[in-house]
Amino acid sequence: MTFILALPYNYELPTDLKQLALVIIDMQRDFLEPGGFGDALGNDVSRLQAIVPALKQLLDAFRFYQLSIFHTIECHQSDLSDCPPTKLNRGNGTLKIGDEGPMGRVLVRGEPGNWIIPELEPLPGEVLIPKPGKGAFYSTDLQALLQEQGITHLIITGVTTEVCVQTTMREANDRGYECLMVEDCTESYFPAFKQATLEMVRAQGGIVGWTAPTAAVLEGLAAAIAVSSDKVPSV
Ligand code: TIU
Questions:
Q1: Average pLDDT over residues 221-230
Q2: C-alpha R_g of the chain
Q3: 190-201 pLDDT, tens per residue?
Q4: Ligand 1 pocket member 39 (CB < 6 A)
Q5: In ligand 1, which atom is closest to the CA atom of 25?
Q6: Residue pLDDT, tens place only, 165-176
Q7: φ and ψ at residue 126, rounded to 5 degrees
Q8: Measured in whole angstroms, how far is the alpha carbon of residue 94 from the centre of its chain?
Q9: Is the confidence at residue 61, as pLDDT, over 70?
């Protein structure tokens, strides 16, 4: 049995690592760069850049081991028909969803600001889930794709911790997925909210799941890969 050293206790990896996927939530310019949606909501977007190196390292490891990778982007169709009026009108930001900003129309699919930052852009073969809500399961193909690929375990990362990342992890947990949030691969505009989220998902014996730092995930993966290659019959 292989596992990741995690809180509140070890996270068991599936014997077949094809059942494991990395989920990267909304690492898009709209949240990480000035002039996007995050900025328009009054946030200091520079805070989120801190996780990029660790997340790139984790992404590279999943690519190296040829494990499943899912990227999401929060976005709306250009006619905003998939954006409820409540979401459109919420807040007193300088720019609303659909308005023309410095990086194109805010949170609209296909606009420059809506795309993933260059360091973490998906490669061919990796799945992109466009999502109109905070959670990645709402109004998307995510669950069907996970089922189709027999995925049962999710390593969850991205921004922002207490909004789209936590919502997705809760949705996944309710659907029966074993989820681990990577502590240094998720960030919030509010440090206290990130800390609270990490504590609340792993409280009560892992009521929503597990948390662990990147180093522990990489160690667990390396051990699991070593074990699975031992099992390959020699010729
Ligand atoms: N505002 C904020 O913290 N987050 C979002 O609107 N979307 C995501 O978290 N991706």
A1: 91
A2: 18
A3: 999 999 999 999
A4: no
A5: 10
A6: 999 999 999 999
A7: -95, 150
A8: 27
A9: yes
